[in-house]
Design brief:
Length: 159
Amino acid sequence: MQIASGPTVLEGTPPSVSKTAVNTLQKLNVDIKLGTKVESSTVLPSGQTELTLSDGSKLTTDVYLPTIGLKPNSSYIPETLLNPKGFVVVDEYLRVKGADGLWAVGDISAIQRPQYALTEAQSIHLSKNIGLVLQKKEPLLYATGGKGKFLLSSFCIIG
């Protein structure tokens, strides 16, 4: 079973990506439960996992693969550094706005849409920029490629 908290699978991705994912899951006879969240999980003595869902139902499964959603895990970050959706606001260099010596990339940063390849590119760029700053040189601009200003792998690096 595929459980998705939003109105579709892979919410936040282009509609064609979501549609392809749904079609693929349906061809594999995977049940899809939309508008539902996993509230908690408990490993049973049998090795199975019992999931408590937001609609109050319970589901027991042999394999539970929790995936990261589009909500950032930013509860530990001061609200003054977050946008209204809870993402860390960064500048065009990937520095956290309003915090000296702090950089953010990945699922927690509000620079691009969520995608591993973008997170990888951000991480590579960030490592170059930290190297430049440590050499007392100016960091390089991070080019988003015009694909939007909303990303998201949840980590911050303090420089």
